[in-house]
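Write out this protein's structure.
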Amino acid sequence: MKIRFIAMLAATACAASASAQVLPTSIRSSHPYILGHQEDFDRLKAQIPLAPANFPYQGGVLSFTFTPRTTAPNSLLESPIFSDFAASSNRLFIRRLEKYGPGAATLQIGLVSRSYPGWIAVAAPTVPLDVPTRIEVRWDAAKRSVQYRIGDASYVAMAWKTDGNGNRVAWQPDDQDLAFTGRVGETIEQIKVTDLNGNVIVERGTVEDRDIHTAWAAFTSYTDRLAGILLQCPTLEAPPSTPEACNVGTGHRAHIAQHARDLALGYRMTGSPYYKAAAINYLDKLFKVAPVTLGTEWSMGGRVSALGVMYDWMYDDLVDTPVPGDPEGLSYTQKIARTIKSTVAGRSAKQSEDLNTLICGYQAVTNTGSVFDCARKPMFENWNRFTPGSVPTIAPYYISGHHASAVGNTTLGLLAIANEHPEVVPMIETAYAHFEKGFMKARSRIAIDGGYPIGYAYGASSNQFGERLLLWRKAMELPVGAGYFSNDWTSKLIYPLIYGLRANNTFPALGDNFSFDVKNALVGELALHAAVEKQDMHALAFYQQVVRPARGTKSRDEIYDRLFYPAAGMPGELNELEKARHFRQAGQVLMRDSWDFSNATLLEFKSSSFISQNHQHLDQNSISLSYKKPLLLDSGLYENYNSSHFNNYYTRTIAHNSIVVFDPRERFMLGTKEVSNDGGQWFKSQNGVQITYPTIEEIQPGAVNHLDGITRFENTEKYTYAVGNASKAYAPSKLDQSQGFVRHVLFLRGDPTRKPVGIVFDRVQTIDKLGATFLLHSANVPAVNASTSFKHGGRFEAAAQTGEDRRITIRNGEGMVTVQTLLPAEADLAYVGGQGQGYSCPQSNPVGSNAQDCRFMVRERQADNDYVWRNFTAEPSNQQLNLEDVGSYRVEISTPAGKLGSGPQHFLHVMSVGDNDGRSDVTVLDTAKRLDSEANTAALLLNGQAVIAFNRDNAPASSLQWQTMAAPKVLIAAGLIPGAKYRLDRFGTLGDSYRLVQTTEALGNLRSSPQGLIAIGY
């Protein structure tokens, strides 16, 4: 997840100066105020199932009535019922062991202790399925005994752990909680806890809020284990990389920060000395790291955030506690403040990777007793990379990059210490200006509808603005009127995830695709932010009905959800939402036929309004399709940023369902390095400088990195229509920059008796008669309605079929798609790919590669300017663990070389989905026939009933004409003059010709929509 840095981060102001930014109000004066106030923690504490103060730790009786169920196959093997197992805690727990049983469920009743490995006592009784059964456990710490009873049976004594002398070891449940969970559908009721004298301590009829019980059991189980690991980790300048929790030197920034939150929150909720000891031990490890720049900004930011959280959330416990062995006798709060400042100001030999560079640009930090800030205020707005000068800036990274996280983590740390260390306020003002004039400004334009062109995984993680807004709002005194950074777009960030959710709880592999699904904590955060910020009840419904159930019983995310986003209200209904949405600047159109996620068809169309590099791919005018499983894929593997596979295949157009135009004269350069010639899109340059990280100004209409993106969008209950123009994404040497590649996508969902149909019509105008190739990617080998012959390097070509339309069927899991090619009329068709199929391919990196891997084939230029197809091998990935979108085969459809002219090339495809029929040949799901038509018209007859007509020309059509014997029951015509009157004429000797023609207001009975479309009978 590294990013590339442009060579220069300094230039002078053009129109605006790098003036200081004054905070709109003062920072709060009493801790805690980082992400939450005391009342927020009190609210959470009142909800979680803590043991009461008079809990009978020395001895008592727990009893409840439990009705186990046979549940879904994806149920956890070890599902908690009461509390949860954690070897690093002193507690009693009960859980289920098996998924299924012949009429019975096996339980595990256990006592664990952090002082002894294994069990203090354990038993595995059975209880009948679907029958309410009383379960009772009785323990006596003084006598060191425990018994259980199932139903009306007698008590059964459990063997108690003994020491080397045969004496029973000491134990009592000091860390006990009262979390009752169970699997979905199981009931737990008639709960009672008494002491050994029969005095009732707890009595309730049922569990009213099982979600918080489940999350708290998971939270304490995890945090107990975390504390145990940390207390065993060595405290070193260069911490070990494993276990992961020990790695505060070079570890993941989010992990370093989250460990601090878990320990501090656990202590704040329970007051557990164990959590406190682990937290202080964690601080000692953070202090010890040397040099402070270890791990680059990635880990530095995580350490600053971790220190800030523990400073604020544990302030009263740390302010008077001296750091053992500190030569100056500093307290923990003093040491934290000093470490935060030294980390932010730290400079290494490679300054591009330092935290302060991501905040201040290339310059030092002034760190005196009275001022802690960038030596010079960086340039926030109107920076010009071509104007020489010396004003530092991070303006090229307001759109994407690690800078938002770096500034956010730094802000958290500095805000935490600001009251006791007011010298850091100037740096906080710098951070505020970055948010106001940079990050928020960029996102307010790009994510105006919630979408972001870098995809779902990074779209969520890069736009974690719910928490960032919460940070500012909680830390500063409440304003009069709207909250800080009040906006409309952050509450819409959840909608690409709602519309893009696939059947298996994942999302399309748009952009760099690390492992990310609906269970990810960021998804819940975005949904709840919308529910709290804008009272969006559809977002709340998505959280409650989709996100929360998907998490299962081992997720602790609900604890933080309740703390940060206390959403309230009656959730809406997802099926009230329209079935398609256009995310304008991001250039996404998401189309679905149903809100039944498990059975819905999802068609994604992507054509962004600008081009940039970081996590965004060269994938304009691309589509993906899923039905029960991914069928048409964004292919490739997200392994290592800037790897050979990454630069030559994964991020390139050839890995996507778009169009490539191979020009042997074209050179694809990343700086001074030439990469593969895939025939696709490329980055923009100005004055000889490649602009891979544009500023806000450089993506505006007319600017160097601006693209046309989605130019038409129309949605009804029965269809969705969108047009994308990706012409400017290609080099002007091979594609007309105005109308070089225009893609029309029509998604038909009107017939409830059939699956939806997708239709894609492309118009490609190349330079010098260069041939265009239409691409599709699949997980499995496509079936083709023609004989195929093996050529070379995993390439198979289909035999010519004069006058017959091409069909392929792609099957994956429970779903399949048949794609029919109607244009070109006599198309060349090939597919390439496969792994371990008995043939080999030239490899870009033979060392460690598999010669039989042909999945990622791209042309590579040789020294003699000839080209060789090579497989750009993917390295093993620790980031993308779900491999179902990696793909194995690429389908290529093109006009035969001998039939290329100087005019535009047209592609017309019909895509039909269905349930996998288990066959290996082509399956016809919908019939589509190309109709004879005028030169400006591309028309087809779908299922013998619907005529679909597209305008082949650039300019909106005043008429479209085609031939068909029967009058169409349905007509959809696209590419017309918007808002104009038309009439439909029938003529010809057999009455088999139809003309849709523009006419006067008085004579026309059909009016085209504002998007230039007419729909009759649909």
